Fold this sequence. Notes:
Number of helices: 24
Family: Belongs to the CTL (choline transporter-like) family.
Function: Choline transporter.
Transmembrane segments: 205-225, 232-250, 285-306, 331-356, 428-453, 474-498, 538-561, 573-597, 617-650
Largest sheet: 2 strands, antiparallel
Distance between the termini: 59 Å
GO cellular component, one term: apical plasma membrane
Protein name: Choline transporter-like protein
Amino acid sequence: MGNLLSMTPPSMDLFGKAWLYGDPRHVLYPRNSTGMFCGIGPNKAQPSVFYFDILKCVTSINIMATTLNGLQCPTTQVCVEKCPDVFWALNPIAYLPNAKPQDYFNQSLCVPSFDLARTTLKVKEIVDQELCPFFYTPTISVLGRCLPDVTALKNIPNDFANTWGLPSSINDTVNGIRNAKGGIVNSFNAKEIGVRIFEDFASSWQWIIAALVIAMVVSFLFLLLLRFIAPVMVWVLIFGVLAVGAYGIYHCWWEYDNYRKSAVSITDIGFTTDFKVYLQVKETWLAFLIILSVVEGILLLTLIFLRTRILIAIALIQESSKAVSHMMSTLFYPLITFVLLVVCVAYWGITALYLATSGIPVYKVVALNSTQDNCGQISGNETCDPQTFYNSTDYSWCRSARCIFIKYNNEGLLQRNLFNLQIYNVVAFLWCVNFVIAMGQCSLAGAFASYYWSLNKPSDIPTFPLSQAFIRTIRYHVGSLAFGALILTLIQIIRIILEYLDHKTRAAQNPCSRFLMCCLKCCFWCLEKFIKFLNRNAYIMIAVYGKNFCLSAKNAFMLLMRNIVRVVVLDKVTDLLLFFGKMLVVGGVGVLAFFFFSGRIRLPGSNFCTEMLNYYWMPIIVVVVGAYLIAHGFFSVYSMCVDTLFLCFLEDLERHDGTMQKPYYMSKNLMKILNKKNRGPKNGKGKD
């Protein structure tokens, strides 16, 4: 056992220490001035932290950031059960010699270790030492922090302090908060908007789910109906593109004919930023006419010479629809991929959180007012313990001395390698995400390949083909998938590094370096796309033949290169069809949601009305985004089916000749298009 432990990689050992010593409470829960967490432990009944003077968090943040890298607000903070929601200021008569502090202060908002009933301090001493707040404004709890309620502050007069006989410092502080001095409340209204959006979701969630169910049903029906409507849709879309091009040619000719007699030419105009001027000369429309005519001619020639390959693409799309109809469970496999991706994201986030909080918090003594008394003697390098600092008399000679959280300890092997471990965590996250996607592609490819290589369909299709393919993938192909995912991860890491370097050096770059950086980013973007394409086809070959990644990638690439024209035609026809399908689902459901949530259509017997919503566009956006994700999930499965059947079809053509020993496995429709057939007793066995 000792030998096994000694063989553990150092990075894994450090990760284990991070999980052991990390404390996410530093991020998840607020803390008071003594370093105690609010909402747990002794302060379980006090979930929010209250700041005595929140404006100090802003006025001193620049100094703290540049000198001490401090992360805690330099004002007294206490855990409270409820954030104060009213304005209160200490009555000026409380400063009289005979005034009793307990008659003017609220014990629940004072420092816990300070007892108003037993103190011998005067009110001024209590205020100077920030043992109790001498005023507070209406606040609301945001992530456990009592932050100013801007809406309530607007109702307070600008000169209220002078009117009520209060110190002018209170007036300045409240006005600074209200006017967002230092950017402290630039986004406080976001909470109010968020509450309204939450109310909209609470009143319309049933209809949002109904719209998403409609999107799922429409996507499902569209894929199933492709076996019947694919030829019509493909030809309609192709001739639609040609018709649009023909109309463009006619329009350009018409505009050219209108300006043909004009004496103004493009040389008379020269260069101008007003592009409308160029549309008033004949040369512009003549150029458009020539370009569109050339493009239209290329499309027509392509259609004439590639009509057979277009018919093959249509037949494969129809065959894919049949395959999906025989294996309906494949349409819901993206849910498994989604769950696994959520697990990857959760593990990465939790690990990053534990790594970030694995050091011991470091507190240092800071003087909020260095000009007061002898506070200038505090250098800011003295460490302190917040749980004992405020009960000691070590710094009683400086009333503005505070024990402030500065950072997490960066000493020790674990702390010195935190940055490297975070990078390692990101690499592992990308690798896991790519592996999960690869596992889904290989599992789906195995299921669809079992459909194609069944000679008598559907009787020869295996029982539970997707489950069997998933088990085979987990049992035999994990190493190949991990290797392919690693290659893609390395490319993505290089792209991230390039983006980081470009961001850091953008201000110092000259035109030559910017051009070089742009070229590098473009090249690695293209490389990532190519690796994804190669990996996808390699996983299909792995699912079909069970060979290793390198050999499968080589065989898939060579097979595609031998049929490059078919690859391009099928890819573009499929992309056009699936793009139209996505637009149909998203556009149709989006328009329906718009008319419903805007109140233009009402369902009989429904008590829902648009007046119940604060922002009717929010559920519409959710429906549109959700419909797109649903359509993308369904169509990604269909696209994988088309690619798998296409590779199987190419393999079928190269390995078989239609004899009894080597019969074709393709459908009758494909054999008819290619003028091929199975000979002998098995003639006609390759049926739909």
